[in-house]
Write a structure and sequence with these properties.
The protein is of the alpha/beta class and about 260 residues long. The protein has helices at about 10-20, 50-65, 90-95, 105-120, 125-140, 160-170, 180-190, 195-205, 250-260, and strands at about 25-30, 75, 145-150, 175-180, 205-210, 215, 220, 240-245. The relative contact order is 0.11. It has a single domain (about 10-85, about 120-260), classed as Divalent-metal-dependent TIM barrel enzymes (TIM Barrel, Alpha-Beta Barrel), CATH 3.20.20.150. The longest helix has 20 residues, at about 125-140. The strands form 2 sheets. The protein has a 6-stranded parallel beta sheet with strand order 1-2-3-4-5-8. The chain has 9 helices and 8 strands.
Length: about 260
């Protein structure tokens, strides 16, 4: 699977390399950037305002077209980050210092971000819905399915609850979820646990499984190095890709060990 580390022009080349190695490339994370992003630039967001959404949808469309020859039929949609106050790095620092209890600075930061997020109501979900509608116009004729990546941070969108809502809104369309117990574990560590019923829907509607581990707020880690139960990644249909995930410096040995843990 190709993630956000590649550029749009590299997608067909990587697909060709996979084909020559007798491999398939069943999934791709989109939008895919055209060029390397500087520290002061970011990808257009699928949850942004109209012009930004249009640019992000176009990048997704082009990624779908560029990856078709590689057999890619699942696009994992990353809707981006929300322009909320506070810094995630500060929250991570407070978490490491165990300053998330009532009245402590980490708790105040988290509650402030959540309150700001709630103040916008359904605005973010509406924007995600509009992007999905636009992408489906290209995805359906190409026989491509769309897997929503649930956020693992208050700054992300959609949350697991919002992802379930969107999947329900598009019932009958090729729209599902990326099931990632590691991401859900990060939310639980922040006290934002996902209800069992919602977790079950994400699992049932999974079009792709992210096999990533987590410790506290650290995710993705190679599987077997964290606290996620391997049983959560078992029992999926053979046609659903299970992708081993990890940070950029993950070693081949760690990936082999993760594969053995998963069985």
């Amino acid at each position: 699977m190709l993630d956000g580390g590649c550029l749009l022009r590299q997608v067909p080349l990587l697909g060709l390399a996979a084909h020559q190695a007798k491999l398939t490339m069943p999934a791709l994370v989109a939008p895919v950037p055209e060029e390397r992003l500087s520290p002061y630039r970011r990808l257009p967001s699928l949850a942004g305002e109209r012009d930004e959404r249009a640019a992000a949808v176009d990048l997704v469309r082009r990624a779908m077209q560029a990856s078709r020859d590689a057999g890619t039929r699942t696009i994992a949609l990353d809707f981006g980050r929300l322009p909320l106050g506070g810094e995630e790095a500060d929250l991570r620092r407070h978490f490491a210092r165990r300053e998330l209890d009532e009245g402590e600075p980490g708790r105040r930061l988290l509650e402030g971000v959540l309150a700001e997020r709630r103040s916008f109501g359904e605005q973010w979900v509406d924007r995600c819905r509009l992007s999905l509608e636009a992408i489906l116009r290209y995805a359906v004729p190409m026989d491509v399915q769309l897997a929503i990546v649930p956020a693992a941070s208050p700054w992300g969108v959609p949350t697991p609850r919002e992802a379930v809502q969107l999947i329900g809104d598009f019932a009958g369309a090729p729209v599902g979820a990326v099931f990632s117990p590691g991401r859900l574990a990060v939310l639980a560590a922040l006290g934002l646990g996902v209800a069992a019923e919602r977790r079950a829907v994400l699992r049932e509607k999974a079009l792709l499984v992210e096999a990533a581990d987590a410790v506290g707020l650290d995710c993705p880690l190679p599987f077997g190095l964290g606290e996620v139960d391997a049983a959560e990644l078992a029992g999926f249909a053979a046609e659903i890709p299970v992708v081993l995930a990890g940070p950029p410096d993950t070693t081949p040995a760690e990936l082999k060990a993760a594969r053995l843990v998963l069985g």
